[in-house]
Design goal:
mainly alpha, 0% strand
Protein backbone atom coordinates (compact mmCIF):
# COMPACT_ATOMS: atom_id res chain seq x y z
CA UNK A 1 0.00 0.00 0.00
CA UNK A 2 2.87 2.37 0.74
CA UNK A 3 4.16 1.97 -2.82
CA UNK A 4 0.80 3.06 -4.20
CA UNK A 5 0.78 6.11 -1.92
CA UNK A 6 4.32 6.97 -3.00
CA UNK A 7 3.31 6.77 -6.67
CA UNK A 8 0.25 8.96 -5.98
CA UNK A 9 2.38 11.49 -4.10
CA UNK A 10 4.97 11.61 -6.90
CA UNK A 11 2.21 12.00 -9.47
CA UNK A 12 0.68 14.87 -7.50
CA UNK A 13 4.07 16.59 -7.24
CA UNK A 14 4.68 16.35 -10.98
CA UNK A 15 1.15 17.51 -11.70
CA UNK A 16 1.57 20.51 -9.39
CA UNK A 17 4.72 21.57 -11.23
CA UNK A 18 2.93 21.16 -14.57
CA UNK A 19 -0.01 23.22 -13.23
CA UNK A 20 2.32 26.11 -12.40
CA UNK A 21 3.76 26.04 -15.93
CA UNK A 22 0.27 26.03 -17.45
CA UNK A 23 -0.82 28.92 -15.22
CA UNK A 24 2.22 30.93 -16.30
CA UNK A 25 1.42 30.29 -19.96
CA UNK A 26 -2.24 31.21 -19.49
CA UNK A 27 -1.50 34.37 -17.51
CA UNK A 28 1.06 35.54 -20.08
CA UNK A 29 -1.32 34.87 -22.99
CA UNK A 30 -4.15 36.73 -21.26
CA UNK A 31 -1.88 39.61 -20.28
CA UNK A 32 -0.60 40.06 -23.86
CA UNK A 33 -3.68 39.29 -25.95
CA UNK A 34 -6.61 39.94 -23.62
CA UNK A 35 -5.53 42.63 -21.14
CA UNK A 36 -9.12 43.47 -20.13
CA UNK A 37 -9.84 39.85 -19.21
CA UNK A 38 -6.50 39.68 -17.41
CA UNK A 39 -7.39 42.77 -15.34
CA UNK A 40 -10.90 41.42 -14.74
CA UNK A 41 -9.31 38.33 -13.22
CA UNK A 42 -7.28 40.54 -10.89
CA UNK A 43 -4.06 40.57 -12.95
CA UNK A 44 -3.06 37.18 -11.56
CA UNK A 45 0.52 36.23 -10.89
CA UNK A 46 1.81 32.82 -9.98
CA UNK A 47 3.28 33.55 -6.55
CA UNK A 48 3.92 37.23 -5.85
CA UNK A 49 0.97 39.22 -4.48
CA UNK A 50 -1.43 36.38 -5.29
CA UNK A 51 -4.47 36.08 -3.08
CA UNK A 52 -7.33 33.63 -2.84
CA UNK A 53 -9.70 35.81 -4.90
CA UNK A 54 -7.39 35.53 -7.93
CA UNK A 55 -7.28 31.76 -7.54
CA UNK A 56 -11.07 31.61 -7.34
CA UNK A 57 -11.34 33.79 -10.46
CA UNK A 58 -9.00 31.40 -12.30
CA UNK A 59 -11.08 28.37 -11.28
CA UNK A 60 -14.28 30.17 -12.35
CA UNK A 61 -12.62 31.12 -15.65
CA UNK A 62 -11.90 27.43 -16.25
CA UNK A 63 -15.19 25.93 -15.06
CA UNK A 64 -17.38 28.55 -16.75
CA UNK A 65 -15.30 27.94 -19.88
CA UNK A 66 -14.80 31.67 -20.37
CA UNK A 67 -11.80 30.89 -22.57
CA UNK A 68 -14.24 29.81 -25.29
CA UNK A 69 -15.53 33.33 -25.78
CA UNK A 70 -12.09 34.81 -26.36
CA UNK A 71 -11.70 33.32 -29.84
CA UNK A 72 -8.06 32.36 -29.35
CA UNK A 73 -7.17 28.76 -30.16
CA UNK A 74 -4.10 28.65 -27.90
CA UNK A 75 -5.99 30.02 -24.89
CA UNK A 76 -8.97 27.77 -25.67
CA UNK A 77 -6.83 24.64 -25.93
CA UNK A 78 -4.93 25.53 -22.78
CA UNK A 79 -8.13 26.36 -20.89
CA UNK A 80 -9.81 23.10 -21.89
CA UNK A 81 -6.75 21.07 -20.95
CA UNK A 82 -6.35 22.91 -17.63
CA UNK A 83 -9.98 22.21 -16.74
CA UNK A 84 -9.58 18.46 -17.20
CA UNK A 85 -6.14 18.53 -15.60
CA UNK A 86 -7.57 20.25 -12.53
CA UNK A 87 -10.34 17.65 -12.23
CA UNK A 88 -7.81 14.81 -12.61
CA UNK A 89 -5.60 16.39 -9.94
CA UNK A 90 -8.50 16.63 -7.49
CA UNK A 91 -9.47 13.00 -8.16
CA UNK A 92 -5.89 11.83 -7.57
CA UNK A 93 -5.71 13.94 -4.42
CA UNK A 94 -8.92 12.35 -3.10
CA UNK A 95 -7.53 8.90 -3.87
CA UNK A 96 -4.36 9.77 -1.98
CA UNK A 97 -6.33 11.00 1.05
CA UNK A 98 -8.48 7.87 0.96
CA UNK A 99 -5.39 5.67 0.92
CA UNK A 100 -3.86 7.57 3.84
CA UNK A 101 -7.08 7.26 5.86
CA UNK A 102 -7.39 3.59 5.00
CA UNK A 103 -3.79 2.90 5.98
CA UNK A 104 -4.02 4.86 9.24
CA UNK A 105 -7.27 3.13 10.12
CA UNK A 106 -5.53 -0.24 9.83
CA UNK A 107 -2.37 0.97 11.56
CA UNK A 108 -4.38 2.22 14.54
CA UNK A 109 -6.22 -1.09 14.81
CA UNK A 110 -9.72 0.14 13.98
CA UNK A 111 -10.24 -2.84 11.72
Amino acid sequence: MQEVMLVCFAGLAVMAAAWFVMCLRLFEALKKRFPEKYKEMGSPKLFRDNDMSETIKLIKFLFKKEWRGLGDSEVSNLGAFMLWFFVAYIVLLLIMFSLVLWESRHALGFV
